[in-house]
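Researcher: Batch entry, complex prediction.
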Amino acid sequence: MLLYHDPRAPNPRRVRIFLAEKGVAYDTIEVSIAAAAHQTEEFRRKNPIALLPVLELADGRVLRESMAICRWVEESHPTPNLIGVDAWERAQIEQWNRHAELELLWPIAQVFRNTNAFWQDRIKQSPEFGEIMRDHVGRRFDWLDRELGTREYFAGDRFTVADITALCGIDFGKVSNLRINAATHPNLAAWHQRVSSRPSAKA
Amino acid sequence: MLLYHDPRAPNPRRVRIFLAEKGVAYDTIEVSIAAAAHQTEEFRRKNPIALLPVLELADGRVLRESMAICRWVEESHPTPNLIGVDAWERAQIEQWNRHAELELLWPIAQVFRNTNAFWQDRIKQSPEFGEIMRDHVGRRFDWLDRELGTREYFAGDRFTVADITALCGIDFGKVSNLRINAATHPNLAAWHQRVSSRPSAKA
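Model: C-alpha coordinates for the complex:
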Protein backbone atom coordinates (compact mmCIF):
# COMPACT_ATOMS: atom_id res chain seq x y z
CA MET A 1 0.00 0.00 0.00
CA LEU A 2 1.13 3.48 -0.90
CA LEU A 3 -0.18 6.54 0.94
CA TYR A 4 -0.03 9.96 -0.74
CA HIS A 5 0.10 12.45 2.10
CA ASP A 6 1.40 15.74 3.44
CA PRO A 7 2.97 15.36 6.92
CA ARG A 8 1.50 18.71 8.02
CA ALA A 9 -2.14 18.16 6.96
CA PRO A 10 -4.73 16.78 9.42
CA ASN A 11 -6.65 14.37 7.18
CA PRO A 12 -3.61 12.30 6.10
CA ARG A 13 -2.63 12.11 9.79
CA ARG A 14 -5.95 10.42 10.57
CA VAL A 15 -5.00 7.60 8.21
CA ARG A 16 -1.40 7.38 9.49
CA ILE A 17 -2.60 7.04 13.11
CA PHE A 18 -5.21 4.47 12.05
CA LEU A 19 -2.55 2.41 10.25
CA ALA A 20 -0.18 2.71 13.23
CA GLU A 21 -2.89 1.41 15.60
CA LYS A 22 -3.43 -1.52 13.22
CA GLY A 23 0.30 -2.19 12.90
CA VAL A 24 0.04 -2.19 9.11
CA ALA A 25 3.18 -1.47 7.06
CA TYR A 26 2.88 0.92 4.11
CA ASP A 27 4.93 3.22 1.89
CA THR A 28 4.42 6.96 1.55
CA ILE A 29 4.82 9.61 -1.10
CA GLU A 30 4.86 13.18 0.14
CA VAL A 31 2.63 15.51 -1.86
CA SER A 32 3.54 18.96 -0.58
CA ILE A 33 0.58 21.34 -0.44
CA ALA A 34 3.00 24.25 0.16
CA ALA A 35 4.72 23.39 -3.14
CA ALA A 36 1.30 22.92 -4.87
CA ALA A 37 2.25 19.32 -5.66
CA HIS A 38 -1.42 18.34 -5.08
CA GLN A 39 -2.43 20.61 -7.98
CA THR A 40 -0.32 18.90 -10.67
CA GLU A 41 -1.93 17.04 -13.54
CA GLU A 42 -0.14 13.90 -12.38
CA PHE A 43 -1.68 14.01 -8.90
CA ARG A 44 -5.08 14.95 -10.28
CA ARG A 45 -5.09 11.62 -12.06
CA LYS A 46 -5.16 10.09 -8.54
CA ASN A 47 -7.67 12.64 -7.21
CA PRO A 48 -9.41 15.08 -9.61
CA ILE A 49 -10.29 17.42 -6.72
CA ALA A 50 -6.68 17.54 -5.51
CA LEU A 51 -7.25 16.47 -1.89
CA LEU A 52 -5.13 14.33 0.41
CA PRO A 53 -4.88 11.56 1.52
CA VAL A 54 -5.03 9.06 -1.34
CA LEU A 55 -4.30 5.34 -0.95
CA GLU A 56 -2.98 3.28 -3.87
CA LEU A 57 -3.18 -0.50 -3.61
CA ALA A 58 -0.62 -2.93 -5.04
CA ASP A 59 -3.01 -3.75 -7.92
CA GLY A 60 -3.29 -0.06 -8.87
CA ARG A 61 -6.74 0.63 -7.38
CA VAL A 62 -7.00 4.09 -5.85
CA LEU A 63 -9.06 5.13 -2.84
CA ARG A 64 -9.65 8.71 -1.70
CA GLU A 65 -11.07 10.25 1.48
CA SER A 66 -9.68 9.51 4.95
CA MET A 67 -12.67 7.59 6.27
CA ALA A 68 -13.07 5.49 3.11
CA ILE A 69 -9.42 4.47 3.52
CA CYS A 70 -9.88 3.74 7.24
CA ARG A 71 -12.95 1.58 6.57
CA TRP A 72 -11.06 -0.37 3.89
CA VAL A 73 -8.15 -0.96 6.29
CA GLU A 74 -10.55 -1.96 9.11
CA GLU A 75 -12.08 -4.67 6.92
CA SER A 76 -8.77 -5.99 5.63
CA HIS A 77 -7.07 -5.76 9.08
CA PRO A 78 -9.86 -6.24 11.66
CA THR A 79 -7.62 -6.25 14.79
CA PRO A 80 -7.61 -4.13 16.88
CA ASN A 81 -11.15 -3.04 16.10
CA LEU A 82 -11.47 0.76 15.72
CA ILE A 83 -14.90 1.21 14.05
CA GLY A 84 -17.17 -1.04 16.15
CA VAL A 85 -17.80 -4.71 16.89
CA ASP A 86 -21.60 -4.77 16.49
CA ALA A 87 -24.30 -2.71 14.77
CA TRP A 88 -25.04 -0.46 17.76
CA GLU A 89 -21.38 0.23 18.55
CA ARG A 90 -20.72 0.94 14.87
CA ALA A 91 -23.62 3.43 14.87
CA GLN A 92 -22.32 5.11 18.06
CA ILE A 93 -18.78 5.36 16.70
CA GLU A 94 -20.09 6.79 13.42
CA GLN A 95 -22.10 9.38 15.40
CA TRP A 96 -19.07 10.45 17.44
CA ASN A 97 -16.68 10.33 14.51
CA ARG A 98 -19.02 12.67 12.63
CA HIS A 99 -19.26 14.97 15.64
CA ALA A 100 -15.43 14.98 15.81
CA GLU A 101 -15.17 15.73 12.10
CA LEU A 102 -18.03 18.18 11.56
CA GLU A 103 -17.87 19.99 14.92
CA LEU A 104 -14.08 20.02 15.47
CA LEU A 105 -11.84 19.13 12.54
CA TRP A 106 -13.87 20.87 9.86
CA PRO A 107 -14.43 24.23 11.65
CA ILE A 108 -10.83 24.20 12.92
CA ALA A 109 -9.60 23.71 9.35
CA GLN A 110 -11.82 26.61 8.26
CA VAL A 111 -10.18 28.90 10.82
CA PHE A 112 -6.82 28.04 9.26
CA ARG A 113 -7.98 28.35 5.64
CA ASN A 114 -9.71 31.67 6.20
CA THR A 115 -7.26 33.45 8.51
CA ASN A 116 -3.74 32.06 7.98
CA ALA A 117 -1.15 33.84 5.81
CA PHE A 118 -0.29 30.44 4.28
CA TRP A 119 -3.46 30.56 2.17
CA GLN A 120 -3.44 34.32 1.50
CA ASP A 121 -2.25 34.18 -2.12
CA ARG A 122 -3.55 30.66 -2.73
CA ILE A 123 -7.33 30.90 -2.18
CA LYS A 124 -10.00 33.52 -1.55
CA GLN A 125 -10.26 33.88 2.24
CA SER A 126 -13.00 35.17 4.52
CA PRO A 127 -11.39 36.19 7.84
CA GLU A 128 -14.83 37.01 9.27
CA PHE A 129 -15.97 33.43 8.66
CA GLY A 130 -12.74 32.21 10.26
CA GLU A 131 -13.68 34.12 13.41
CA ILE A 132 -17.23 32.73 13.34
CA MET A 133 -15.73 29.24 13.23
CA ARG A 134 -13.29 30.10 16.04
CA ASP A 135 -16.26 31.01 18.28
CA HIS A 136 -18.04 27.82 17.19
CA VAL A 137 -15.06 25.67 18.21
CA GLY A 138 -14.96 27.38 21.62
CA ARG A 139 -18.58 26.39 22.26
CA ARG A 140 -17.89 22.85 21.09
CA PHE A 141 -14.97 22.60 23.51
CA ASP A 142 -17.43 23.51 26.32
CA TRP A 143 -19.82 20.76 25.22
CA LEU A 144 -17.13 18.12 24.76
CA ASP A 145 -15.62 18.89 28.15
CA ARG A 146 -19.00 18.02 29.69
CA GLU A 147 -19.27 14.85 27.57
CA LEU A 148 -15.77 13.67 28.53
CA GLY A 149 -16.65 14.04 32.20
CA THR A 150 -18.80 10.90 31.78
CA ARG A 151 -16.37 8.57 29.96
CA GLU A 152 -12.75 8.10 28.89
CA TYR A 153 -13.08 8.31 25.11
CA PHE A 154 -15.29 10.03 22.54
CA ALA A 155 -17.51 7.05 21.70
CA GLY A 156 -17.38 5.18 25.01
CA ASP A 157 -14.90 3.31 27.19
CA ARG A 158 -12.34 2.49 24.52
CA PHE A 159 -10.18 4.22 21.92
CA THR A 160 -11.78 4.35 18.45
CA VAL A 161 -11.53 6.17 15.13
CA ALA A 162 -13.60 9.00 16.65
CA ASP A 163 -10.68 9.78 18.99
CA ILE A 164 -8.28 9.79 16.04
CA THR A 165 -10.44 12.32 14.16
CA ALA A 166 -10.84 14.53 17.24
CA LEU A 167 -7.10 14.41 18.03
CA CYS A 168 -6.12 15.39 14.48
CA GLY A 169 -8.69 18.20 14.51
CA ILE A 170 -7.66 19.62 17.88
CA ASP A 171 -3.91 19.35 17.21
CA PHE A 172 -4.42 21.18 13.89
CA GLY A 173 -5.89 24.07 15.90
CA LYS A 174 -2.47 24.94 17.38
CA VAL A 175 -1.37 26.75 14.22
CA SER A 176 -4.45 28.99 14.63
CA ASN A 177 -3.87 29.41 18.39
CA LEU A 178 -6.86 27.20 19.21
CA ARG A 179 -5.78 25.23 22.28
CA ILE A 180 -7.44 23.33 25.12
CA ASN A 181 -7.19 25.24 28.39
CA ALA A 182 -6.79 22.63 31.15
CA ALA A 183 -8.08 25.07 33.78
CA THR A 184 -11.43 25.61 32.06
CA HIS A 185 -11.68 22.27 30.16
CA PRO A 186 -10.09 19.67 32.45
CA ASN A 187 -11.90 16.63 31.00
CA LEU A 188 -11.03 17.53 27.42
CA ALA A 189 -7.42 18.17 28.49
CA ALA A 190 -7.22 14.78 30.27
CA TRP A 191 -8.63 13.04 27.18
CA HIS A 192 -6.10 14.86 24.99
CA GLN A 193 -3.26 13.73 27.25
CA ARG A 194 -4.61 10.16 27.19
CA VAL A 195 -4.78 9.87 23.39
CA SER A 196 -1.59 11.88 22.77
CA SER A 197 0.42 9.48 24.92
CA ARG A 198 -0.35 6.53 22.61
CA PRO A 199 2.59 5.64 20.33
CA SER A 200 0.29 6.05 17.28
CA ALA A 201 -0.06 9.79 17.97
CA LYS A 202 3.46 10.28 16.57
CA ALA A 203 2.49 8.77 13.21
CA MET B 1 -38.77 4.01 15.53
CA LEU B 2 -39.35 7.70 15.94
CA LEU B 3 -37.60 10.27 13.74
CA TYR B 4 -37.23 13.84 14.95
CA HIS B 5 -37.00 15.95 11.80
CA ASP B 6 -37.81 19.18 10.03
CA PRO B 7 -39.46 18.60 6.61
CA ARG B 8 -37.49 21.52 5.10
CA ALA B 9 -33.97 20.55 6.25
CA PRO B 10 -31.65 18.49 4.02
CA ASN B 11 -30.09 16.12 6.59
CA PRO B 12 -33.40 14.70 7.90
CA ARG B 13 -34.44 14.19 4.25
CA ARG B 14 -31.41 11.93 3.74
CA VAL B 15 -32.76 9.62 6.44
CA ARG B 16 -36.36 9.78 5.17
CA ILE B 17 -35.28 8.79 1.63
CA PHE B 18 -33.07 6.02 3.04
CA LEU B 19 -35.98 4.63 5.07
CA ALA B 20 -38.31 4.90 2.06
CA GLU B 21 -35.87 2.90 -0.09
CA LYS B 22 -35.76 0.26 2.65
CA GLY B 23 -39.55 0.21 3.02
CA VAL B 24 -39.25 0.68 6.79
CA ALA B 25 -42.22 2.14 8.69
CA TYR B 26 -41.52 4.82 11.31
CA ASP B 27 -43.16 7.66 13.17
CA THR B 28 -42.09 11.29 13.02
CA ILE B 29 -42.06 14.31 15.30
CA GLU B 30 -41.58 17.64 13.60
CA VAL B 31 -39.00 19.86 15.28
CA SER B 32 -39.39 23.21 13.57
CA ILE B 33 -36.10 25.07 13.13
CA ALA B 34 -38.04 28.20 12.14
CA ALA B 35 -39.84 28.06 15.51
CA ALA B 36 -36.52 27.30 17.31
CA ALA B 37 -38.00 24.01 18.56
CA HIS B 38 -34.53 22.42 18.15
CA GLN B 39 -33.15 24.87 20.75
CA THR B 40 -35.47 23.87 23.60
CA GLU B 41 -34.13 22.19 26.72
CA GLU B 42 -36.39 19.23 25.96
CA PHE B 43 -34.89 18.64 22.51
CA ARG B 44 -31.36 19.23 23.78
CA ARG B 45 -31.84 16.20 26.00
CA LYS B 46 -32.04 14.22 22.71
CA ASN B 47 -29.19 16.16 21.08
CA PRO B 48 -27.08 18.60 23.16
CA ILE B 49 -25.90 20.38 19.99
CA ALA B 50 -29.45 20.88 18.74
CA LEU B 51 -29.08 19.29 15.31
CA LEU B 52 -31.53 17.21 13.28
CA PRO B 53 -32.20 14.38 12.54
CA VAL B 54 -32.40 12.29 15.71
CA LEU B 55 -33.71 8.71 15.80
CA GLU B 56 -35.28 7.28 18.95
CA LEU B 57 -35.66 3.52 19.19
CA ALA B 58 -38.55 1.71 20.91
CA ASP B 59 -36.29 0.92 23.88
CA GLY B 60 -35.44 4.61 24.35
CA ARG B 61 -31.95 4.58 22.83
CA VAL B 62 -31.17 7.72 20.84
CA LEU B 63 -28.99 8.03 17.74
CA ARG B 64 -27.89 11.31 16.16
CA GLU B 65 -26.29 12.17 12.81
CA SER B 66 -27.82 11.21 9.46
CA MET B 67 -25.17 8.69 8.43
CA ALA B 68 -25.06 7.00 11.85
CA ILE B 69 -28.82 6.49 11.54
CA CYS B 70 -28.52 5.21 7.95
CA ARG B 71 -25.80 2.73 8.94
CA TRP B 72 -27.94 1.47 11.82
CA VAL B 73 -30.92 1.00 9.50
CA GLU B 74 -28.74 -0.71 6.87
CA GLU B 75 -27.62 -3.31 9.40
CA SER B 76 -31.09 -3.93 10.82
CA HIS B 77 -32.76 -3.90 7.36
CA PRO B 78 -30.10 -5.14 4.89
CA THR B 79 -32.33 -5.22 1.78
CA PRO B 80 -32.05 -3.39 -0.59
CA ASN B 81 -28.38 -2.76 0.08
CA LEU B 82 -27.48 0.94 -0.04
CA ILE B 83 -24.01 1.09 1.58
CA GLY B 84 -22.11 -1.73 -0.17
CA VAL B 85 -22.06 -5.53 -0.41
CA ASP B 86 -18.31 -6.11 0.04
CA ALA B 87 -15.31 -4.28 1.49
CA TRP B 88 -14.28 -2.60 -1.77
CA GLU B 89 -17.79 -1.45 -2.67
CA ARG B 90 -18.30 -0.16 0.87
CA ALA B 91 -15.06 1.82 0.56
CA GLN B 92 -16.12 3.24 -2.82
CA ILE B 93 -19.57 4.21 -1.55
CA GLU B 94 -18.03 5.85 1.53
CA GLN B 95 -15.67 7.81 -0.75
CA TRP B 96 -18.52 9.05 -2.95
CA ASN B 97 -20.87 9.68 -0.05
CA ARG B 98 -18.18 11.86 1.53
CA HIS B 99 -17.63 13.68 -1.76
CA ALA B 100 -21.40 14.26 -1.96
CA GLU B 101 -21.52 15.53 1.61
CA LEU B 102 -18.31 17.56 1.85
CA GLU B 103 -18.23 18.91 -1.72
CA LEU B 104 -21.97 19.44 -2.30
CA LEU B 105 -24.29 19.31 0.70
CA TRP B 106 -21.98 21.07 3.15
CA PRO B 107 -20.94 24.02 0.93
CA ILE B 108 -24.52 24.37 -0.37
CA ALA B 109 -25.77 24.55 3.23
CA GLN B 110 -23.13 27.20 3.95
CA VAL B 111 -24.42 29.35 1.09
CA PHE B 112 -27.86 29.22 2.73
CA ARG B 113 -26.62 29.83 6.28
CA ASN B 114 -24.41 32.74 5.31
CA THR B 115 -26.58 34.56 2.76
CA ASN B 116 -30.26 33.81 3.43
CA ALA B 117 -32.53 36.23 5.32
CA PHE B 118 -33.89 33.23 7.28
CA TRP B 119 -30.69 33.15 9.39
CA GLN B 120 -30.15 36.91 9.55
CA ASP B 121 -31.29 37.42 13.14
CA ARG B 122 -30.56 33.86 14.24
CA ILE B 123 -26.79 33.43 13.69
CA LYS B 124 -23.76 35.52 12.75
CA GLN B 125 -23.50 35.34 8.96
CA SER B 126 -20.62 35.88 6.54
CA PRO B 127 -22.08 36.71 3.10
CA GLU B 128 -18.57 36.79 1.62
CA PHE B 129 -17.99 33.18 2.71
CA GLY B 130 -21.38 32.28 1.25
CA GLU B 131 -20.20 33.59 -2.13
CA ILE B 132 -16.89 31.69 -1.84
CA MET B 133 -18.91 28.52 -1.28
CA ARG B 134 -21.21 29.37 -4.21
CA ASP B 135 -18.17 29.51 -6.51
CA HIS B 136 -16.89 26.25 -5.01
CA VAL B 137 -20.17 24.48 -5.75
CA GLY B 138 -20.04 25.71 -9.36
CA ARG B 139 -16.62 24.11 -9.83
CA ARG B 140 -17.83 20.89 -8.20
CA PHE B 141 -20.80 20.79 -10.61
CA ASP B 142 -18.25 20.94 -13.48
CA TRP B 143 -16.29 18.03 -12.01
CA LEU B 144 -19.34 15.90 -11.24
CA ASP B 145 -20.74 16.44 -14.72
CA ARG B 146 -17.55 14.87 -16.11
CA GLU B 147 -17.75 11.99 -13.58
CA LEU B 148 -21.39 11.25 -14.41
CA GLY B 149 -20.49 11.00 -18.08
CA THR B 150 -18.85 7.66 -17.23
CA ARG B 151 -21.58 5.97 -15.13
CA GLU B 152 -25.23 6.20 -14.06
CA TYR B 153 -24.83 6.86 -10.32
CA PHE B 154 -22.37 8.54 -7.99
CA ALA B 155 -20.61 5.40 -6.73
CA GLY B 156 -21.06 3.15 -9.78
CA ASP B 157 -23.81 1.41 -11.72
CA ARG B 158 -26.43 1.33 -8.99
CA PHE B 159 -28.30 3.71 -6.66
CA THR B 160 -26.65 4.05 -3.22
CA VAL B 161 -26.60 6.31 -0.17
CA ALA B 162 -24.13 8.56 -2.02
CA ASP B 163 -26.92 9.46 -4.49
CA ILE B 164 -29.26 10.24 -1.58
CA THR B 165 -26.74 12.63 -0.03
CA ALA B 166 -26.03 14.32 -3.37
CA LEU B 167 -29.75 14.67 -4.18
CA CYS B 168 -30.53 16.26 -0.80
CA GLY B 169 -27.58 18.61 -1.17
CA ILE B 170 -28.40 19.72 -4.70
CA ASP B 171 -32.14 20.13 -4.05
CA PHE B 172 -31.34 22.26 -1.00
CA GLY B 173 -29.44 24.60 -3.34
CA LYS B 174 -32.70 25.78 -4.97
CA VAL B 175 -33.49 28.14 -2.08
CA SER B 176 -30.11 29.81 -2.76
CA ASN B 177 -30.67 29.82 -6.54
CA LEU B 178 -28.06 27.10 -7.04
CA ARG B 179 -29.45 24.92 -9.82
CA ILE B 180 -28.13 22.44 -12.36
CA ASN B 181 -28.12 23.90 -15.88
CA ALA B 182 -28.94 21.06 -18.27
CA ALA B 183 -27.32 22.91 -21.19
CA THR B 184 -23.90 23.15 -19.51
CA HIS B 185 -24.14 20.08 -17.20
CA PRO B 186 -26.14 17.47 -19.14
CA ASN B 187 -24.80 14.43 -17.28
CA LEU B 188 -25.48 15.90 -13.86
CA ALA B 189 -28.95 16.95 -15.04
CA ALA B 190 -29.69 13.43 -16.36
CA TRP B 191 -28.53 11.90 -13.06
CA HIS B 192 -30.74 14.35 -11.14
CA GLN B 193 -33.73 13.39 -13.27
CA ARG B 194 -32.94 9.69 -12.73
CA VAL B 195 -32.78 9.89 -8.91
CA SER B 196 -35.62 12.41 -8.59
CA SER B 197 -38.00 10.08 -10.43
CA ARG B 198 -37.65 7.39 -7.75
CA PRO B 199 -40.68 7.26 -5.39
CA SER B 200 -38.32 7.71 -2.40
CA ALA B 201 -37.40 11.23 -3.56
CA LYS B 202 -40.80 12.42 -2.30
CA ALA B 203 -40.02 11.25 1.25
